[in-house]
Design brief:
Layout: H1 24-32, H2 46-50, H3 57-71
Length: 73
């Protein structure tokens, strides 16, 4: 992942983890793994996500479901 300045993100961006319906515990774990947006997972498959520290199957399922909800799938 690339390093980015958190000040560059608009507060109301629906792609930000804090603006999703993910539980706060999941958001905290993802932030500690340096994820900030749902789109950070676009190019990652489940195995790659599991290799990240602090990410488990429950978080992966929640992220996938939230992305589907936002995309209208």
């Amino acid at each position: 992942m690339t390093v980015m300045d958190f000040g560059d993100l608009p507060d109301d961006d629906p792609d930000l983890l804090e603006n999703t319906a993910l539980p706060k515990q999941f958001i905290s774990r993802l932030r500690k793994a340096f994820f900030t947006r749902l789109s950070d997972f676009d190019e990652m498959d489940d195995i790659q996500m599991l290799r990240e520290p602090g990410i488990n199957w429950r978080i992966i399922k929640a992220v996938r479901s939230e992305r589907a909800r936002i995309d209208g799938r």
